[in-house]
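User: Um, what's this?
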Amino acid sequence: MALVINAESAAAEPFGANVMRQRLLTAERVRGSHVRLDRWMLGAGASVPLEVPAGHLAWFQMLEGEATFAHAGGEEQLTSAYVAFLPPRLHGALASRAGAALLYAEVPDAARFDPEFSRNLNAGVRSCIHTLP
């Protein structure tokens, strides 16, 4: 069954300095969903911490604008051509000079879907950032 969520139907809430978040896919909205999906809107000069809890898997896809993604492995300059896959326990920050929008997805307790999950966590963050074709 398809689910259509109009961005205007999801209330935007403050989420960090000059950042708004819309909760698009939640357990409350879609019973049994194993993925949480948010739309983040970073205003000019915005900065927001990005932390993936232990046992979770996350990714984000830039939709518009430019942002900087700082993490233990370095700093990445991102445009709408980027998607980043984030391992558990990642600590970083997203910042934007002129503003940006992205989709952020998270799978809580990802190991329940992959028995090898814990063993496959050694990929570096740098190798998880890709440019879209």
Remarks:
- The mean pLDDT is 83.
